[in-house]
Design a protein that fits this description.
7-stranded mixed sheet; 4-stranded mixed sheet; about 15% strand
């Protein structure tokens, strides 16, 4: 398994095309990177740098806006995958903004939690394939954020955990049901009841992440963060080679406890598509298919 991690790191591109457009102001940095004739990968970087990307109301409001935009574009083939990453060298997301929470009334706290839960629910329900690129700390709400994506790529330096029990609270943005669904009830309880932290190797062995990016030499934190992002981009690029309608239908069909009937219904929805006919023609002509999301 360790060799697989090394291969994943070696397969990451040394550089990706320049962003087609980017916005690096505010608590989020957003870029669209072209990966095919017709599609892009959207990168959303958390950028509350003075707070280790703690989930402040400011960051949450902006994040919700971008998730709503992705929902509106789900039927388009332009955005083939979404990578959620960090612009901070030490943390993916440190969790709730506890300093801000300490100043809130109980009513304000409940309102913030409702907004957080709804935002994470909409992220988890996206049909566009989503990947979390986790470097450094992902604690509490930060881990819950990563649990909402379809796939997770961890740096070898990633440290994750659910520390809420030591703060007199419980995971409140999906951790109590998404974590057991991913790694099993006993392991999830281990993390939530003890508040202990997991390193990347153990997280991978538990099924909490799908790739671990090893870092050769003594690269600094910034270099390692970028290598992790490249690993996630490599995975997103591979996904983007497939038919976008198929990818979105797969994520929808695999969401929750599916049934044979739901799979059959999902398959039926892609039989009469141009992309399916293009794939069959490309196979017969011994060429790569060109998918247009139709």
């Amino acid at each position: 398994m360790k060799d697989e991690w090394k291969n994943d790191a070696q397969e990451t591109h040394s550089s990706f095309p320049k962003p087609l457009n980017s916005n690096e102001s505010g608590p989020l940095h957003v870029e669209d990177v072209g990966v095919s004739e017709n599609g892009v990968i959207r990168i959303i970087k958390l950028a509350e740098l003075d707070k280790m990307n703690a989930l402040s109301t400011r960051l949450l409001k902006e994040f919700r806006r971008h998730i709503d935009e992705l929902k509106d574009q789900a039927s388009s083939d332009v955005i083939r995958a979404v990578v959620i990453a960090s612009a901070h060298d030490k943390a993916f997301c440190a969790g709730a903004d506890l300093k801000e929470r300490a100043k809130m009334t109980e009513t304000e706290t409940r309102s913030t939690l409702r907004q957080l839960r709804q935002t994470f629910l909409e992220l988890a329900d996206l049909k566009i394939p989503t990947i979390a690129a986790v470097h450094g700390y992902a604690l509490g709400g930060g881990l819950e954020l990563a649990l909402c994506t379809h796939l997770r790529v961890f740096s070898q330096d990633a440290i994750v955990g659910m520390p809420e029990v030591g703060l007199g609270i419980i995971p409140g943005a999906g951790g109590t049901f998404r974590l057991p669904a991913l790694i099993g009830r006993s392991r999830a309880l281990d993390l939530m009841l003890t508040g202990r932290r997991l390193g990347a190797p153990e997280a991978h062995s538990w099924g909490l992440c799908d790739r671990v990016i090893e870092h050769g030499g003594d690269g600094d934190l910034s270099t390692r963060r970028l290598e992790t992002l490249k690993g996630a981009m490599s995975l997103a690029s591979k996904i983007s080679l497939g038919a976008p309608i198929s990818a979105q239908t797969i994520t929808k069909a695999a969401h929750g406890n599916g049934t044979q009937e739901q799979e059959a219904e999902a398959y039926e929805s892609i039989i009469n598509t141009e992309d399916r006919r293009e794939a069959l023609a490309a196979f017969a002509e011994k060429r790569k298919p060109i998918f247009r999301g139709q």
